[in-house]
Amino acid sequence: MPIEIDPSRGWRLTSELSDPTAALAAAELEAALGPPGEDGIEIALSHAGDTGDGFRRRVDPERIELHGDSPRGLLFGVYRTLEEFGLRWEWPGQESGRAGSAQLEDVVEDAPALPGRCLVLGERVLLEEAESWIVWAARNRLNTLFVHVSTRRQPIGSAPEATWRELRGRVLELTRERGM
User: Fold this and answer.
1) Which secondary structure element, helix H or strand E, spans residue 68, and what is its range?
2) Which of 30-34, 75-79, 91-95, 125-129 has the lowest mean pLDDT?
């Protein structure tokens, strides 16, 4: 049964954010909805375990509960909820829509049909823009990164290994941060 939720009237967060991916989920809510306050809708975030990308959401007029099978499942639940509030991430570096009121189903249980959903960076330009691609991939609920490299000087269909070596530290850090 759909319930009207309007985050513009304010929101507050209750959660345990010791896991970096769970903390990112809270940060994504704040970036989309503005800073939390003392009044308004309570958003409760929780997760259990370390595996699975599924989540459950329960909604009543004063509270949204998101529970992930893992921290990444929680993050994916936040992204699904933000999409229902009107946000879209159609292309890396681009955000469209604004968070507004929405009709949210009172109970949602969701898990991806495929356990592995992969972003492939296989060209120099894609690897050079890896940060925006990784953020986009996580927001669109991809959970793995594959970087296709080649030792050839001017590879076609892959990124130069030297570029990968130069960028891999930051790329791997960001994939961990995004739960990939």
Assistant:
1) strand 63-68
2) 91-95
